[in-house]
Amino acid sequence: QECVVCHQSGASITCLEEGCDRSFHLPCAMAGGCITRYIGLYRSYCSDHRPEQEVEVAPQTGTECLMCMEPVDKQVSYRTMVCPACKTAWFHRHCILALHAGITSFQCLPCRDGEAFLAEMFTMGIQIPFR
């Protein structure tokens, strides 16, 4: 299979969406906007069929990522995510990936919600190691 991201052969992950035959390498997934869920059946989705956050909120002008303090996109996107509980905590996807390093409790920083935040991160393909 040819990878839809790097166009090299050997792509072993195929989008779960019925009728979609797009494949990609695991290391290429993030660069291509693909999502791989690291729970249950390890489902993967290409950039066209990946799940999106269902939160209907947009960041205020000048909103920054709570981790890196850099501006976030003007809406929820693959790169920009929001806490589904408080709807005020905005993060870059790559910053959330760094958030879980070295902590034992994975939760939203401002509201301390762990349940909805954790479930949403799993759904959105954030790999959270259990220790």
Automatic annotation (TrEMBL):
Drop me one GO molecular function for this one.
Answer: zinc ion binding
Annotated signal sequence is: none
| UniProt-listed InterPro entries | EPHD, PHD-type_Zinc_Finger, Zinc_finger_PHD-type_CS, Znf_PHD, Znf_RING/FYVE/PHD
- List each copy of the PHD-type domain by range: 1-50
Mind telling me which Gene3D superfamilies this protein's record contains?
Zinc/RING finger domain, C3HC4 (zinc finger) (3.30.40.10)
This protein's UniProt keywords:
Ligase, Metal-binding, Zinc, Zinc-finger
Q: Can you cite an annotated GO cellular component?
A: nucleus
This one is known as: G2E3 ligase
Q: Which organism is it from?
A: Bucco capensis (collared puffbird)
Mind giving the lineage of the organism this protein is from?
Eukaryota, Metazoa, Chordata, Craniata, Vertebrata
